[in-house]
Amino acid sequence: MKNDQILSQITEFCRQSDMAETTFGRRVVNDGKLVHRLREGKRITIDTLDRIQAYIAASTGALPPPRGLDVPPEKRDPRGNFRFFENRQKYLLFVHTCSEKRVIAERVALELSSLHPRPPALRVFDAGVGDGTVLARVMRSMHGRFPHMPFYIAGKELSLEDVRLTLDKVPDRLFEHPATVVVLTNMHYAEAPWLTPASPTAAAGMLWHEVALRGASSGEFETQIAELGPFLEQNWRANISPKSGMPIYERPVALVVYREDHRFLLDSIIPRAGRTEANFDLVIASQPYRAKSSVNFRAKRIIAPLARSLRAGGRLIGIHSHGHDPGLEIIQSVWPGENPFAVSRHELLRAVKYELGSAGRDLNFNAYADNRSIFRYDMEALPNEVTGSIGTSTAFAAWNAAVYVAQIEDDRLTEMTENSRTLDATREVLRKHNGLWFYDESYVISRRRD
């Protein structure tokens, strides 16, 4: 809630109660200058806001407003709605021509030095595994720093194709670090860390599938994981919600994978139905929401539930596109004024803090300075490919990267398909900057240690 909204409530209450604003401040928080500071734009804590609203409610005989952010339904037309996992061609071209996955994994790996794991395992949750590239790279870094510590790795992913790509990377990780439990689920953000559906109906139909891999080589593991194909096709399905137009799981699934020869060591780590926990040391939230989603939606539906899943000393690193880069310049040359990156990390963290309320008292919200938060990744091309006469393939790869990062919907792209201005504008930006790059920004939410 913003200052002008709080002030409006206080002013109206004081007018109806014939009470001076200084008196109101003294009675609520023992501070006669409370209202004056609000008018100067000063911030107040969540506790102070709760006390203000509780005092007004008690004095007027009304119920205090419920805690939490108001999130209007984001009704979207499935035909025009941009969804990462349904833009396979754009996605695959983007990840093979740009360095974002590698750079994000390097940024996440910096958080490992701040972790303080507790027995029986180092627990990591990836809130949107994608094709598993970032998670696999982070697991390599984890093995380098904690070579003898058991790992519990959980990830959320709705896309069947991305689950397959992620599982392709699991054999090598289990070969290098045998004491690892990998869990993949298709559940919502508020459910996945706990592997517990919110709906009793969904919980009753939840499917647990445990795979103990035999053998001791990555080739043997790969063969057994490949045999999961029919199971995934039959159960890892998504529907479109009639209320929101967004994809939702048809049936909640938890897939648990580990090495048979390490079952005894991992027994207390392997999750089982009715016996699960969150308590993560590290939560990775890399691009977990649409660029155009509201700040309240991001805070209430995604980041706040993930922050609740942290154990003492745990850290959540969030990453999303920042804009202000040559990629956005391409977009704005075609669609003037377009800016899908309107929500900053500062605004998001304020909303998350408000949503959590008293549950966030032992959390630190770190937006950091720009030189630490913002990082760059590039479209990888040879120097002579982005200067002089730029070929169609290079221009198309740059255009694809720009529209993918900006999450331009297919129906808008269709209008520009036969317009040569798109590639001409792309070439102009490539020549101007001698290349193409993008900016992401990061933030960290950490729970204080006991």
Supply database-style keywords.
19 helices; 450 residues; two-stranded antiparallel ribbon; 12 strands; Rossmann fold; alpha/beta
List the helices and strands and how they pair.
Layout: H1 3-17, H2 21-29, H3 34-39, H4 46-60, H5 88-97, H6 100-109, E1 122-126, H7 133-145, E2 151-156, H8 160-176, E3 180-185, H9 200-204, E4 207-213, H10 218-226, H11 229-235, E5 238-240, E6 247-249, E7 253-259, H12 263-266, E8 280-286, H13 295-308, E9 310-321, H14 326-334, H15 345-356, E10 363-366, H16 370-373, E11 374-378, H17 392-405, H18 410-416, H19 421-433, E12 437-447
Using DSSP, what is the number of strands? Answer: 12
Task: Assign the structural class, choosing from mainly alpha, mainly beta, alpha/beta, alpha+beta, or little secondary structure.
Answer: alpha/beta
Task: Estimate percent helicity.
Answer: 40-55%
**How many alpha or pi helices?**
19
Morphology call:
globular
Count of discrete domains: 2
User: What radius of gyration results from the CA coordinates?
Assistant: 24 Å
- Sheet with the most strands? 10 strands, mixed
User: DSSP strand (E) fraction?
Assistant: 15-25%
- CATH-assigned fold name of the largest domain: Rossmann fold
Tell me the CATH architecture of the largest domain: 3-Layer(aba) Sandwich
- Unreliable sequence segments: 78-85
